UniProtKB/TrEMBL annotation:
CDD domains: YtcJ_like. This is Amidohydrolase. It comes from Emergencia timonensis. Keywords: Hydrolase. GO terms for molecular function: hydrolase activity, acting on carbon-nitrogen (but not peptide) bonds.
Length: 535
């Protein structure tokens, strides 16, 4: 179907995410832009095509405001250490062995997604566990959070990591009682092996992005934020080439400042900052701490079972100050990964003394994850208009680690969505895929279910006072995601906005909250073009 004719969509249950016109049953689209939304009895008469949506629920396309698409696309081709593929360390070793049998000894074996809480042994793998799978080729398995890497003995040897190797700034090498590395590399220590690991070719990356775009379309995700790569490649180049080959999603890109600080040649051009195009550069990303599930987030109180383990502060003053200076000079956003309360307070207090440096209504600071914000941080955030991007899916799928590291009562106070919304915080939902230990990490529906039920996948209560209703959850996954990310003309179905919308198999506003993750996307439209239709 051409997106250029004037088309009306009728017989629909439209939820617009537009507070001034929240529900409708018809919509008009011309040249990919919505021109009218309202009651079918009042729709314009001058149309060239009418499409009956058969009484189905229609939503704005989902906006995933925090994910790592290029990493997700790459990980999808590697060993998945998630259930049901891997339920124990023996399973993991077996999967590694299978891969080794298919390739040469000088090739790396890579995987992702393990969560010790879901392994039968209830512990992280170490070098010796991975050696059971393969000892003559290097092996690297990334933890689900993305902040911890486990490698085998061969990989440690290649990278020259020994008992004499010091911990890098903002990182930790786990060691046994004799001081020998166990193979577990936390935060910045995980980067000690990356120079020895293979890079994909440019064309391979583009092909993987195209495959991912198709997956996102099937999940109803029409706009995304790429929150940074672990290397110094330019994601803008990848995405613009992928668009030439048919990639459809709108993307805002953030550059991981650790990869570019001190490089005088690094710049983001005026053209890249143009938000009117499908792909635009939004700003910089810095890493403030780690993950709660990996016990590396820099928390207000010690982790359960300790008196002095508060996690790790990853970001140096130099990284933070130079990032702020770049963003002020270029009038672009600064994003900071901030899970623990000490990290949240640190960046909020620092940014609070600045005047807003972005030109439009995009927040000049956005915080990622925001596990335990203090009342003071929330108040300052509201006053300054900072944005928060959080992930209800973390509690839903990583509950074992949270209970182990924080205990049940403290876990219930994390990610206080209702509290933040009631205070007036600009808050959105996202998946952080692939840093999500779920079968299909980019799927929005388990995330929405988690927010509405405030329960984990196994039924564990995660704090009922912080759940939200389904309408609010949808807004946080559409309109609010666009606002936090500075994505223009998306996230709502209203005149002047892109006709990015999805048609669902079931009415997500009417199904039981426990059934939300069973809803499927029937059709996905981007700028009026149907880009996905379910079989």
């Amino acid at each position: 179907m051409s997106a250029n004719k004037k088309t009306v969509y009728v017989n629909a249950k439209i939820f617009t995410s537009d507070d001034h016109n929240l529900y409708a049953d018809a919509m008009a689209v011309e040249n990919g832009i919505i021109t009218w939304v309202g009651k079918e009895t009042e729709m314009p008469a001058d149309y060239s095509e009418k499409i009956d949506l058969e009484g189905k629920r229609v939503l704005p396309g989902f906006v995933d405001a925090h994910m790592h698409p290029i990493m997700l696309a790459d990980y999808s081709k590697k060993i998945s250490a998630l259930p049901p593929n891997v339920n124990s360390l023996a399973d993991l070793a077996a999967r590694i062995r299978e891969v080794r049998e298919q390739q040469a000894a000088d090739q790396w074996i890579e995987g992702w997604g393990y969560d010790e809480g879901k392994l039968a042994e209830k512990r992280s793998p170490n070098r010796y566990d991975l050696d059971e799978g393969c000892s003559d080729a290097p092996v690297s398995i990334i933890r689900t959070c993305g902040h911890i890497r486990c490698v085998n003995s061969k990989a440690l040897e290649l990278a020259g990591i020994t008992k004499d190797t010091p911990d890098p700034q903002g990182g930790k090498i786990d060691r046994d009682e004799n001081g020998e590395p166990t193979g577990v590399l936390r935060e910045n220590a995980r980067n000690l092996v990356t120079p020895y690991m293979p890079d994909l070719t440019f064309d391979q990356t583009i092909d993987q992005l195209l495959d991912l775009g198709n997956l996102l379309s099937s999940q109803g995700v029409t706009s995304i934020s790429d929150m940074g790569l672990l290397d110094s490649n330019d994601p803008y180049v990848y995405y613009t080439k992928a668009v030439e080959k048919g990639f459809k999603q709108k993307v805002s890109i953030y550059y991981m400042w650790d990869n570019f600080m001190g490089d005088d040649s690094f710049k983001i051009t005026k053209e890249q900052f143009n938000k009117d195009q499908q792909i635009h550069s939004a700003g910089l990303k810095i890493i403030g701490d780690g993950s709660v599930s990996g016990r590396t987030a820099w928390m207000n109180e010690p982790y359960l079972g300790t008196t002095d383990d508060y996690g790790i502060s990853v970001c140096s003053d130099e990284v933070m100050e130079t990032a702020i200076a770049f963003c002020k000079e270029n009038r672009c956003q600064l994003s900071m990964h901030a899970m623990g309360g000490q990290t949240i307070d640190r960046i909020v207090d620092r940014a609070y003394i600045e005047e807003k440096w972005t030109d439009d209504d995009t927040p000049y600071l956005r915080l990622e994850h925001v596990t335990e914000p203090s009342d003071q941080a929330i108040a300052k955030t509201v006053e300054k208009g900072f944005g928060f991007a959080t992930q209800p899916i973390f509690l839903y799928c990583e509950i074992e680690s949270y209970l182990t590291n924080l205990g049940p009562e403290r876990t219930k106070t994390t990610y206080p969505v209702k509290k933040m919304l009631d205070a007036g915080v600009l808050l959105c939902f996202s998946t952080d895929a692939p840093a999500t230990s779920w079968a299909v990490p980019s799927d929005p529906f388990p995330c929405i279910k988690a927010a509405v039920t405030r329960k984990a996948y196994d039924g564990t209560d995660c704090g009922q006072d912080q759940k939200v209703d389904i309408e609010t959850a949808i807004k946080l996954y559409t309109k609010s995601g666009a606002k936090v990310s500075g994505l223009q003309g998306v996230g709502e179905l209203k005149p002047g906005y892109h006709a990015d919308f999805i048609v669902l198999s079931d009415d997500i506003l009417a199904v039981s909250p426990e059934e939300i993750d069973k809803v499927n996307v029937e059709k996905t439209y981007i700028s009026g073009e149907m880009i996905y239709e379910r079989n």
